[in-house]
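Format notes (please read before filing issues)

Several people have asked whether sequences and structure tokens are stored in separate files. They are not. Every record keeps both together, in the order shown below: the sequence lines, then the token lines. Line labels are part of the format and must not be stripped during preprocessing.
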Amino acid sequence: MTEYITLALAGIAAVLSLICVLIRPKQGATLRDLQNLSQELQEEMRALRTEVGGTIHGTLQSTAELQANAQRQVAEAQNTRLRELSEQLAVRQTALQKAVTDQLQFIEQRMKTGALESEQKLENIRTTMETRIAAMQADNGKRLDEMRHTVDEKLQKTLDEKLQQSFSRVSEQLESVYKGLGEMQTLATGVGDLKKVLSNVKTRGILGEIQLGAILEQILAPEQYAENVATVKGSSERVEYAVRLPGDGTSCVYLPIDAKFPIDAYNGLLDAYDTADAAQVEAAAKVLEQRIRQFAKDIHTKYIHVPETTDFGIMFLPIEGLYAEVVRRGMVERLQAEFKVVIAGPTTMAALLNSLQMGFKTLAIQKRSSEVWDVLSSVKSEFETFGTALEQAQTRINQAGNALESLVGVGGMANVYKATDLLENRLVAVKILREECRGNEDLVRRFKNESKAISVLDHPNIVKVYDVSVTDKLQFIVMEYIDGITLKEYMEYRAQPLTYKETLHFITQVLAALQHAHEKGIVHRDIKPQNIMLLADSTIKVMDFGIARFSRSENQTMTDKAIGSVHYISPEQAKGDTTDAKADIYSVGVMMYEMLSGKLPFESDSPVSVAIKQIADTATPLRELNPAVPEALAAITERAMAKEPRERYPSAQAMLADIDEFKRNPSVKFEYQYLTDTAPTRYIDKVVNKTATKQSGGQQRPRTGARPAARGGTKTKKRLALPILAGMAAAFLIGAAILVFLIFKYEGNGMFSQSMDVDLPNFIGLTQAEIQEKYPDSKFIFQTEEEYNTEYAAGVVCDQYPRAQTASDPKRVKENAKITLTISRGVEIVTMPDLSGMSRAEALNACKEKGLMPTFKTETVPKGQASGVVLRTDPVSGTQVEANTENSSVTVYISQEEVDKSTTVPNLVGVASLSEAQDLIRSAKLVLGGYSEEYSDTVPAGAVISQNPVSGTPAKWNDPVSIVVSKGAQERTIYVHIAVDETNEGGTYTLLLNGGNPQPWSPTAGQASSYQWSVTSTGTGTITLQKPDGTTAEQAVDFAPGGSGDLDFGTFGGNYKKPDDPSSTPPDPSQSAPSGEGD
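Then the structure lines:
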């Protein structure tokens, strides 16, 4: 500013000088005067400049002081204001915290009260339902008994009359029929009927068509009913089963029977009963009635057409509870009157079919009474042939019993047997679905899932599969036999936390196996130490894919029984949400936690409590339980156990990468930072070396070449601190005001949104067109994706996210929420590949790539032809086949070169043990046929006494050999008797067997008594009696059956004399012998 004032004064002086020059001098003025005037002006200018400069300098100093004072006052005011704001915020925070605490206490109290009330209500509901169900069952049982009694009486009366008439005619014609015997034209039919009668133990009841087919097959003959029948001429509609009723002699009349099972509507009604809400129960019942009524209408419209069919049809409901519900609601009479459809459950269907069968039998007896004797005669002549067949069947059973050597494991749904693969001569494990589980549709589905899942896996850390067979009658998996223990057993044996090196050794193998499974689209969903086998060489094998699912069709919830072990399941499994490969990552994290700490992260008294903790609680930090765990390894475990799937490792391979990084640098530090912005939360992985950024003492090293701070720098920073803080506070207040304005201004904000909460419907089972038609006013934002699905037809919604509401857990969402619909592409159809000439392994891989499940069978080919290659397949190549479904089983026939199966029976007599004899039998490629035990005095116990056939007999492979094994010599008990009379002098008698096992007996002197000794032994020996006088007596004994009888050494006496009467004079001791002495 000083420079500007100086320049202004200089300009003024110049202007004045110019004015003086330009003005004409007045009259009388002289040049000297002008010069003097100019000099005076210059002096005045200098004086003025000096004065002005001083004035300006003083002014500037005053201004600086005023500015400093103003700044200090502003700073003090801002500090005062900030302190006031801080105090106000503290007061409000305290008040808010107290209010929140009070509210939480109130909510907690309400929850406890609500829980008690809910338990009481549930108990009342349970009691009411049990009472009603018991009454209903009793009433149903009573009615069924009455119906059965009435039917039995009528049928028995009719049958007795018809049989009496028929057998009367049979008796009259018996002699003439008997003379015509000799032709065996009905032999095959008669034997077949007999076998059917003898083997009429059918598979257990299952749902729907299979159960109906089983009932029909069990009660009716094959010619009495038909499958997939077009009952209406010219129609493409086919009824599942139809009973053939006699017609006019040239044709039959069909009685259509169709199985229906509205499982969704029935489960909805059961859920409604659980809520005890009358309105909800009534709504669910209406849905069930509508479904049943629609089924009846379909049967009437599609399958009933007089005169080709009866004027009524039968609807079969496979569950008694569903049938009882339909009966209770009075639908039976309404459907019969409106659509002429009869409702039948499993029990009533069996009774109805038995009635029809009795009628068929009556007609058959009338038509074929003359053939009865022919059949009986044929059966009699075939009993010997049938006996031979039974012996062959028994031989096969014995072979199977030897092939399945021992039971090695028992699970919830299957037994595992140790067996021998006779073709490959190797030990295998055979997992067979237990018979009592074959009627459980859910367990059968899980077993099929396991066979499907592991059939497409091939990894050194996953149990190998050699063969799979899933049929209606038998389900088994032939797997690699593993001789080891489970990882859980190893952890319990250690009884302490594992070292981190042991943990990483096991976990890396588990992750490698899971990476392979995930790449194949398989999610295990039950990873736990009990499902991991540990071999002697420290290799692990992952097993038990019983609840595994293909990830593209995963939508399982906790309502499907036992989906994962509760201590290891992920939070999304516990909540019933959609799961993927990250659920297995969580289970691996729980396993790591347990190995490193020796404890499970969440434990409680009940599985439900553990599941709730999996969802809501945070595990105790790993290093608090075991400080020896490296920090980086604890971080890896923590990330694997993250509650949110998106915060876990994206894959098993990614987790392996961090473990490898830890192995290379144990001091590595993993930090998982989360960014919060308008985009969805994501995580950033940072690998930071602990010593890379800090020096000792925690101070950062200054940069090389940095200039030292100028003096007064600290003071400058202090001067700038308050204005900066004030600016930040002002910016904060302005931003908060803008934020509040935006929150209240815009309706689209989620916190103060005006969008209404609505019930989320269940779109599963509907097409997109049906959804638009059924919910025209819906404001949902739909997103779609497609996948193959075996349960829903193409174009139908097979899954949705979020899932729809249920009776027990209604789902509420915003009316404009985004809903993801998964549209079914239907069943995946593939072309059966040409496997001709491939090896077994090549054929297996080719089938796996197509999603097929092969069953391998062998066919013998002449010598010289290739062995071990595919001959043919069923179905043939080029056939369209379903992939990854229950119908994906194909049969592959492998060539096996014809071999010489002749052998010689080895010598087994005298072999020391049964196991040695079995080894000799196996080495000769024979099987143990019969086994019995006998006593022998010459052959030691356990050794072979005899065999059949004898040694050296020619035989074929797998022929049976029976043996008799010695039980050793048979023991027998013999009784030895001795006695003494009144003259015995006392003393001790001793009995011995072969000089040992002494048995002493001391009778009382002067009293008659006897003694019996029971001795048990084998073979022969000698019984010795040592008498008191030192003499002995001996008798031989034979313990063999039929040997010696009981022994009697006789009666012994002495010279004992009774003393005189006590009242008399006692005898002189010197004149008489002491009592008990003598010969």
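For reference, the curators noted about this record: The mean pLDDT is 75. The first helix runs from residue 2 to 22.
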